[in-house]
């Protein structure tokens, strides 16, 4: 009987397929992974600690840089938590909520497009990468038109959104949402029936329904293991309960199931965007809460009262009564939660973030152990992690 010697290798933190500065210490027996240990401490930004020394408004740009592929989802979760702490959740104007939903679903599409592009490229399918980034570019154009930035948008604010949609943008978004299902069919035509794709994804990275729940998986990674759970429906916010959409659930529990679940989610996001456009009515986009929200720009420019009002909120912030809240939203990668504690000052006493990528990454060792080294690449891609919200 031949003796084999285990080998320990480092995969990352500079490896292109670790999707960021993730380091995996792999113990191999030949090409079979015996043990995998993730090391994540290479991108520390101190977001939670920095938040303790900034006013509630000043924290918003920090959230953009968590999951930097889904900045508006990060903005939304944080602003909902602050609004709950302030007790103004019911005062958010209808138009602002509809715009928030529309932007959140565009963000979901934007995030899933990058996931699909990079996941396919990791496994060797380059054409899908080019197609998916073509569609993502249109969303970054929309981001730029509403916020002036293509990635770190800082668009959703406490009390509503920064500004109303520019003229003509509604039609542009409608045309985009109506065209997306055909593009998704195009991606499926390249991958779903492809024998190489099937061999690299089917039966790879299996995690059972029970294990997925125990580990705390959320989002598509949870729903692809047969758990029908989505915060947009089960703990609704921004009026999601009034939209008609399906929650894609798969039972195969493998990489292929997670791939199919996300593609189906993209189709549902397109449905939600069109419904949001249909119900978009003229009206304010910021709550009428002068002690919390900034005045209109024309008031700042044309009146001394508006200028003083703006100056006071920007320089001093607003005080929040003592209390604590937790708000979770269905971000593209899963449950993104913000736990906020207020001590009555204009700055959070404590902010704790529950990022989906961090929790989902816990499943990686269980999913890769016993698989081939090549499968590690496919499994990292299927979890759709972003290190910006993992080592925050």
What's a concise summary of this model?
Helix 2 packs antiparallel against helix 3 and helix 11 (255-278) runs parallel beside helix 16 (373-383). The radius of gyration is 22 Å and the shape is globular. It is built from 17 helices and eight strands.
Describe the structure.
This protein is mainly alpha-helical. It has one domain (58-159, 166-385): Cytochrome-c3 Hydrogenase, chain B (Orthogonal Bundle). 50% of the residues lie in helices and 12% in strands. It contains 17 helices and 8 strands. It has helices spanning 47-50, 56-64, 71-86, 94-123, 126-147, 169-191, 195-201, 209-215, 220-223, 231-234, 255-278, 297-302, 304-316, 356-361, 364-368, 373-383, 387-390; strands at residues 7-11, 23-29, 32-39, 156-157, 160-161, 323-331, 334-342, 350-354. The strands form 3 sheets. A 3-stranded antiparallel β-sheet has the order 1-2-3. A 3-stranded antiparallel β-sheet has the order 6-7-8. Strands 4-5 form a two-stranded antiparallel sheet. It is globular, with a radius of gyration of 22 Å. The model has no long low-confidence stretch (mean pLDDT 94).
């Amino acid at each position: 009987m031949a003796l084999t010697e285990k080998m320990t290798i480092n995969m990352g933190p500079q490896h292109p397929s670790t999707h960021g500065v993730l380091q995996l210490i792999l113990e191999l027996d030949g090409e079979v992974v015996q043990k995998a240990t993730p090391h994540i401490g290479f991108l520390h930004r101190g977001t939670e600690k920095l938040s303790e020394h900034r006013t509630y408004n000043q924290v918003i740009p920090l959230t953009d840089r968590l999951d930097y592929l889904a900045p508006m989802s990060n903005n939304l979760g944080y602003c909902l938590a602050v609004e709950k702490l302030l007790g103004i959740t019911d005062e958010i104007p209808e138009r602002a909520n509809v715009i928030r939903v529309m932007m959140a679903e565009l963000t979901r599409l934007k995030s899933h497009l990058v996931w699909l592009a990079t996941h396919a490229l990791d496994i060797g399918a380059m054409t899908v990468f080019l197609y998916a980034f073509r569609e993502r570019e249109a969303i970054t154009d929309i981001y730029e038109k509403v916020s002036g930035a293509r990635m770190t948008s800082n668009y959703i604010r406490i009390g509503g959104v920064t500004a109303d949609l520019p003229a003509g943008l509604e039609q542009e978004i409608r045309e985009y949402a109506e065209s997306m299902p055909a593009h998704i069919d195009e991606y499926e035509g390249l991958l779903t029936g492809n024998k190489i794709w099937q061999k690299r994804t089917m039966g790879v990275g299996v995690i059972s329904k029970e294990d997925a729940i125990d580990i705390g998986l959320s989002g598509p990674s949870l729903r692809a293991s047969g758990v029908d759970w989505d915060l947009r429906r089960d703990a609704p916010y921004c009026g999601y309960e009034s939209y008609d959409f399906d929650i894609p659930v798969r039972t195969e529990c493998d990489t292929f199931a997670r791939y199919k679940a996300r593609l189906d989610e993209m189709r549902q996001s397109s449905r939600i965007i069109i419904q949001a456009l249909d119900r978009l009515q003229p009206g304010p986009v910021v709550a009428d809460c002068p002690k919390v929200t900034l005045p209109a720009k024309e008031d700042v420019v044309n009146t001394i009262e508006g200028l003083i009002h703006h100056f006071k909120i920007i320089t001093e912030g607003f005080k929040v009564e003592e209390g604590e809240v937790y708000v979770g939203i269905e971000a593209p990668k899963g449950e993104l939660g913000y736990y906020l504690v207020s001590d009555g000052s204009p700055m959070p006493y404590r902010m704790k973030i529950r990022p989906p990528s961090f929790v989902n990454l816990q499943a990686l060792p269980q999913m890769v152990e016993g698989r081939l080294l090549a499968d590690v690449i496919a499994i990292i891609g299927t979890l759709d992690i972003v290190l910006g919200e993992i080592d925050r």
